[in-house]
Protein: Transposase DDE domain-containing protein
Amino acid sequence: MKLTVNLSKVELKRGKDSITGRIGLSWVTHCAEDFGLRKIVEKEYAKGKKHSRGIPPWKKVMSGMMMMLSGGERVEDVEVLRADEGLLESLGWEEINCPDTMLNFIGKKRNNARNRKVNEEMVIESLRRIKTEELTYDNDATYLDSNKKSAKYSYQKRKQFSGLIGSIANLGMINTVEYRAGNKSPQTGILNQLRKAIGQAKKAGKRITKFRSDSAAYQDKIITECEKSGINWYITVDRNEGIKKLISGRVVTDWRTMYGESKERHDIQWSQAEYVVSKGYKVRVLILRWKNPSPDLFNTESYCYHVIGTNDWEIDPMKWLEFHNGRMGTIEHINKEIKRGLGCDYTPSHEFEKNRGYFILGVLAHNVLQMMKLFYFDGAQKLWTIKTVRHYFINVCGKIVKSGRKFYCQIVNVPDKIFALFRHCKSRLGQCYY
Structure:
């Protein structure tokens, strides 16, 4: 129908239909319940103080995740969900907590510890549901600028917080997370997270067989842990004195041109060698070099170098480089998603614990989205970013309609492929195992 008159001549009429512009949030919530997330939350919170009055922890956790998934940028944006009667009706909820309740909830250390445990249990359950037996674990630290009092100056010479996160690359889920002040060394905590990841995989009946990280993980104790656990590691190597001596010992005939997927990179040459670390382990190193584009008084070297180490003696050099760089599509992509897509670079308070709680909620929201991609979407959405999912699936108009003895979810004004996505999602409810 075309509007043929001027809006000034149109009569206003108020409707009472409970329509929501975020019907996708209801589907995400019901899928999370179907997956078992509600039971995980209730089981974890049942271990401590009872929550007999007020809004239960499950709804507080879920409302925080829904706020982030729908595009909220501040804790106060949960008010938008509170005012959405259509969303409440589609959820079957009477109310959603207010921002102050949310801040008080995430400001308690025990609640954040429980939410982190909930996240771990969700990842373990996801691991049980996939066929892959051998897993790749990636680890990286990300930094968040902040002017809050609890922020500290990092090595980047800015006031920041730091999030050390680990991801199972086969899932795209964050399985280990630690939120800390910016002055913590990026090397701190990696070993503990690696051990935790090994334990999670074992609990799910799987095994970590590969570990990737940047130079922060190039530590003797991490290499020892990998050797003890039978893990092939692929880590960027620090250019210490031993590595510099190794590079200077390379002759012209040791350098080769790139091949395979990297054959177009004519500006880069590579060489490989062996190197013995202080613990006595022999390490295979891949050295890349390219012309120094701007030598100066402080860097007079003719070439720039990048060194990668591994204990995998069978892998082809270019396959090795490709696999190591694959972490940019997993852990580094996740860092970007949780900061820019879910707003985890926002710090709601001067109190450290509240900022930590907000970050952990963002990690949970990311993992719920990955759960949807893995077990409820049809596979074509695997590479969708949070903004794409938000546009096509979450922020969609719809309402719950009762007709006779049946309830219908009426999706409004979407293309056929998006309606088919909702239909596929419904078909997976109750049977989301691979």
